[in-house]
Write a structure and sequence with these properties.
This protein is mostly helical. Helix content is about 70%, strand content about 0%. It is built from 15 helices and no strands. Helix 7 packs across helix 12. It is elongated and about 140 Å long.
Length: about 400
């Protein structure tokens, strides 16, 4: 861009061409006024000068160049400055109101105080009326005897079981996270800086010399801007003052000194506690699921063991092929084994086991029947078999057929 055109852009305060980086570099590289005055003496030798000197000669003809550039840079950065102050102020204000009005959070504090007094019963700390808000983050440091859970896990579980309304408090403190990143000191410094820049600009406008160039629109444009800037600054000051009042009231409610406990520290503790509480809720849920799985697995194992013992007991109740005992009991057990098929279950090859089992049972059954026949023939040799005997033999024959 030609040097004269750059000069005109500055005179016109043309924000379509002027950018933050451009004006920042101009301010940064701008020589002192004494050097600019010396360069102005060589304007008649312009063509013989180096490029940087030529640029200096053109720029030094702009009245009050440094204050002008500083004012233009302030105008270009003003909205950014507002956005650095306003959202933070709104976040802290909203967070103060949320914490103060949250019934579920207040209920949680009551439960925490009750548990603390119960644990401290008999000690000098018993019967406390309250506790420091920073103590909430230390609840996780108090662990159970087995070191697996903490006091915070216990509180969360109690709330889940008995006071479900308390679980709403994380959703009621949505602005706490943003408020925990706000520095009250930075907010104050930014407001003071803005106030000074507005005051400097107002003074420059009042003392600015009459325009010598028709293109010089500095006073005209800056007068409109400084009025708008002052209005926005006043609004930001009101918001900041309201924020400080709310935080002071919060200090009175929770009994802490707002001058010693900063906004950042207070809300950072609440933010950390909120995250801890949500985390232990998940851990409690995971622990319950694990315990339920272990319980189901234990019950399944006990059931399987019970079924195994019952089957083993039934097998032991079956006939012992080599033992001596009551023949009626032997036949009853044998018939039950044949009916249920238990007599054919042996831990051998499928086909071979069935075949051997069948042969064994058949042989035993044949032996028993033969014995019965022999005894009958000795007792009544010539007596005709009655109907009952025929039925028994038919049943035995049927069993022999099925077993073979």
């Amino acid at each position: 861009m030609p040097y004269q055109e750059i000069k005109n852009v500055i005179l016109e305060v043309n924000e379509e061409v002027l950018t933050e980086s451009m004006v920042t570099n101009l301010v940064k590289q701008l020589p002192e006024q004494e050097q600019l005055n010396r360069l102005a003496e060589f304007k008649d030798e312009y063509n013989d000068l180096a490029e940087s000197e030529q640029f200096g000669v053109v720029m030094c003809s702009v009245p009050r160049l440094r204050p002008r550039l500083n004012a233009i840079l302030f105008k270009l950065l003003f909205n950014e400055q507002v956005e650095n102050i306003k959202p933070d102020t709104v976040s802290v204000t909203a967070a103060c109101e949320e914490v103060r009005k949250s019934a579920s959070f207040a209920h949680l504090l009551e439960i925490t105080l009750l548990v603390g007094n119960f644990m401290n019963a008999g000690s000098r700390n018993a019967g406390a009326f309250g506790f420091d808000i920073s103590f909430l983050c230390k609840l996780k440091d108090t662990k159970s005897a087995d070191q697996k859970t903490t006091l915070l896990h216990f509180l969360a579980e109690i709330c889940e079981q008995e006071y479900p309304d308390v679980l709403k408090f994380p959703d009621e403190l949505v602005h706490v996270e943003k408020a925990s990143r706000v520095s009250a000191e930075s907010l104050q410094k930014n407001l003071e800086k803005m106030k000074k820049q507005i005051s400097d600009l107002q003074r420059d406008i009042e003392t600015f010399p009459p325009a010598e160039d028709d293109k010089d629109k500095f006073v005209e444009k800056m007068t409109v801007f400084v009025k708008d800037a002052q209005e926005q600054y006043n609004k930001l000051c009101m918001m900041h003052s309201n924020m400080e009042t709310l935080f002071k009231e919060l200090g009175e409610y929770f009994v802490f000194d707002p001058k010693k406990v900063t906004i950042e520290e207070f809300f950072l503790d609440l933010h950390n506690f909120r995250n801890m509480f949500l985390q232990v809720l998940k851990e409690n849920q995971k622990r319950r699921e694990t315990e339920e799985k272990m319980k189901r697995a234990k019950l399944a194992k006990e059931k399987a063991e019970k079924e195994r013992l019952e089957k083993q007991q039934k097998r032991e109740q079956l006939i012992d092929m080599t033992s001596e005992g009551d023949e009626t009991g032997v036949m009853d057990s044998l018939m039950e084994a044949l009916q249920t098929g238990a007599a054919f279950r042996r831990k051998r090859g499928p086909r071979q086991a069935n075949r051997k089992a069948g042969c064994a049972v058949t042989s035993l059954l044949a032996s028993e029947l033969t014995k019965d026949d022999a005894m009958t023939s000795v007792t009544v040799k010539k007596k005709k078999p009655n109907e009952t005997e025929i039925e028994v033999r038919e049943d035995n024959q049927d069993m022999l057929t099925r077993s073979s």
